[in-house]
Amino acid sequence: MQAYPVDRILDNSATDFDLYLEIAGALTLYAKAPYKWARDELSRLLADGHKVFFHFTADLQKVDAYRLSTAVKIDTASPPAQRIVNLTDAAAELTRILYNYPLTEASVEKVKDVAGGMVQCVEEDRSCVAALGLLANHDYYTYYHSARVAAYTLAIAMQMSQRNKPQLQEMAVGALLHDVGKSKIDLAVLNKHGALTKDEWELMKLHPVFGEQIVTESLLAVMPREIIVHHHERFDGTGYPHNLTENELLEEVKIAAFADIFDALTTNRPYQVSRTRYEALDFIRHKLLKVVHKDAFQAMVELLGSEGKELKK
């Protein structure tokens, strides 16, 4: 057994590992996983003289995931243009944790918190996503991709008149987790310079399935799961992993899929130099518009204002 300070547990957080207290010289199970901590419950324990919990050594990875995920700070006060950048930083750090530790209830709850923060920020000012250009030069595999896709997905959805906050939050959760299956693929393949071999490409195309498997035991709703497994499907059935067509995809999946393509085109990757946002939209209009959501394309054109004005003609 290993000790964990009581004051390192946060009110309203969830722990995925059993926690014991020493009472009368014996360890007694206090919080059986999964456990949701009520407000002020921990303060009462500290007031009663309980300074440490104990957990099984076998749960150390879950404990580390909890410690790291609860340390991620969520900006709720900055002006929208700065806040979306700060939230993207937080989401990127959270994504890094998700790639390196088991998916736990605590980390999923934190994903939902970040998603909620993004919804509020983008709702205040949809044009704040233009500030994400400040992050466009991060390496594709530095975890910022999923964070930007979530922000773009929300802005597009709101531009298309979606207003249901719980639904928007679920969309952001799905977008934040859409590439989590890549955690099962070797870094040598993910970061390879030059074209992938046939076998490497077939492995890469499995990441939506791997992602679906990773979240199987989580409490995610249907829609974020659909985003995770189907964000690479295309309207004409040429996508993967299930070759679905336009009428077989949820509207939210179509929007997230467009946001994924847009961010990929505007990000430096091992095998591709990034395009400007105008160049990306122009490329989509001429090369991809038949296989992606046209309304999402139009919404992004409108969101980017001066950068997209030539595409409105």
Description:
With 313 residues, the protein is mainly alpha-helical. It folds into 2 domains: 63 residues, no CATH class; 235 residues, Hypothetical protein af1432 (Orthogonal Bundle), CATH 1.10.3210. 49% of the residues lie in helices and 7% in strands. It is built from 13 helices and 6 strands. The strands form 3 sheets. Strands 1-6 form a two-stranded antiparallel sheet. A two-stranded antiparallel sheet has the order 2-5. Strands 3-4 form a two-stranded antiparallel sheet. A hairpin with a 2-residue loop joins strand 3 and strand 4. The relative contact order is 0.09. The mean pLDDT is 90.
Q: Which second-level CATH architecture of the largest domain applies?
A: Orthogonal Bundle
Helix content class: 40-55%
CATH homologous superfamily annotation of the largest domain = Hypothetical protein af1432
The rounded distance between the terminal residues' Cα atoms is: 67 Å
User: How much of the polypeptide forms β-strand, as a percent range?
Assistant: 5-15%
Question: What is the number of helices?
Answer: 13
Biggest beta-sheet profile: 2 strands, antiparallel
The largest sheet has its strands arranged as 1-6
Could you name the ranges where pLDDT drops below 50 across 5 or more consecutive residues?
none
